[in-house]
Amino acid sequence: MKNRLKELRAERSWSQIDLAARLQVSRQTVNAIENGRYDPSLPLAFDIATLFQMPIEALFFKS
Question: Do 63 and 1 touch, CB atoms closer than 8 A?
């Protein structure tokens, strides 16, 4: 699954560590999601959508 996480994070000038802290996950998790090596759980996907104030469908899409 592709996503816009890296793009949205960059727009806010957040590092992966900053985003990880906001989501209460590791930096490695953020990196893996951004690079398409890991699909987040549904609760984490909702947390990400809430943080960026966007619907999940605007963040994650089929490759």
Answer: yes
pTM above 0.85, yes or no: yes
Q: What is the pLDDT along the chain (63 residues), one digit of tens a residue?
A: 899 999 999 999 999 999 999 999 999 999 999 999 999 999 999 999 999 999 999 999 887
Q: What are φ and ψ of residue 2, in 5° steps?
A: -90, 160
- Give backbone dihedrals phi and psi of 17, rounded to 5 degrees, phi first: -65, -40
CA 54 to CA 17: how far, in whole Å? 21
Cβ contacts of 34 within 8 Å, gap of 6 or more = 3, 5, 6, 9, 16
